[in-house]
Every structure is written in C-alpha cells, then in structure tokens.
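Pasting as-is:
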Amino acid sequence: MTVILNTIRKSFLLLLFFFSYYLQAQLVNIESKRMHTDSLRFVLNADMLFNYTDNNGAYILQIRSNVGAQLKSKNLKSIYFLIGNINLIRSRNEDFQNSYFVHARYNYKISKLLRVESFLQNQNNKKLTINERNLFGLGLRFKLFSTTNTQAYLGNAYMYETEKISSTNQKLYNHRNSSYISLNQSFKKISLSITGTLYFQPLYSNISNHRVLSQFKADLPLTKKISFSALYNHSVINFNSNLEDNKFSNVNFGFTLKV
C-alpha cells in the first residue's frame, strides 16, 4: 500500500507540472483514447460515474461515462476504433453540463511510418453556441519517431462538417482542415504514461474561423485491469463573425476498467 501511495503522489506531482506548463494550450480527445496495444487484437476500456443528491427537494444529478473499443485485423494492418462519452450535471433549475460525443475511425497501415485514416463524428453540447456538430474526415497519419518510451505522431485531414447554432437553429455547412501533433511518453519506473495532443482546425475559406484544441491524459495502472487516470481538456473556438466565441475546459480524475 505504501508503494502505491508513493507512486500516486509522484504521479500527481508530474501532473501538476504538465498542467501548469500547458495551461494556455488547447485540447482534443481522440489521441489520448488511442490504444497502443501492439499485437493485441481487441481492447475495451470503460468507466462510469453516477451521483444523485437531494436536499429538501433541491437535487443535483451527475452522470459521466466513457467507452472505448478497438479491433485489429488478423494481419494487424487495419484498425477499427470507437469511442463515446456522456456528461450530465443537472439541478432542478439548470443544466450545468449536458453533452455527448461519439467518434468512429478506420486506420490502415501503408508502411511503418504512414497510415491513412477515415472517421465519422457526432457531438452535442447544449451549453455552447454550436450545440450540435456532425462531420466526416479523411487524411494521413505520420509517425515522426518512436522509441521504447516515447512516440510522436503528426496528422492532417480534410473534414466536411454540419453545425447547428443553438439560439437560431441555423445550420452551417463547412469544409475544414484538421492538423495535429501528438506525443506519448511512458515513465517505466512508476508505470505512468502521459499523452499530449494539440489540434488546429481552420476553415479552408477563412483561417480566422478555427478551433484550437488540446488534451493531456495521464494513466497509472493499479492492477492488470484497473488504472487510475487524470484528464485535462481545453478548447477555444473563434468564429470570426457576430457569433460569440466559445471556450471550454474540464479536469477529470477516475478509474478505468480495461478488458
């Protein structure tokens, strides 16, 4: 038990360092969900939080769930990947958070350094100016370098998206570029892994209309199937129009079950 507590304490110190250094960055969530499993063909990760509190009729309901699944072909060249999450914090008078996210992706290995990817995504967040977003994308993923403890990737994709503005129900149809760089770092002595990703997603017709997204995730195995995880998200959306720009951030701590 003492060893586990010391390990967790070291992990929090590392997390504080990364969070303070990258606090002004922006983030995303696909890269931290990727599963680097070598020859393991099927992986399923899931976690769920449910909490309900009622004090004399004043209640708070909280639901948070994350699911990730990955399947590889027999020759390990094709990867099928699905992730989804739900976040709800509700009181009698207001929803403090109400969102969901679903992402499906296909990845095919062309060479040791290059893969082609296609993906579909649906997301909804009732607290943002753009409360619904659907997209299709196609692009390339490059492995910049890979060592025993460190991997770095660079990606670029074309995306076609439809968005709905919550206040007017107006729909937007956009052609957008998506570029990202991702770094995975493992600390073998304390069994800690950290993933950091930075995305930039401008419109082809108007670069000032863009999203800057970033995410940092730390994962610490406690047993073969259960891990302690910490996740920091931050995003900024600049519309370059009369629409109000959006900013979003959150921090999650919890446990992940791996099957």
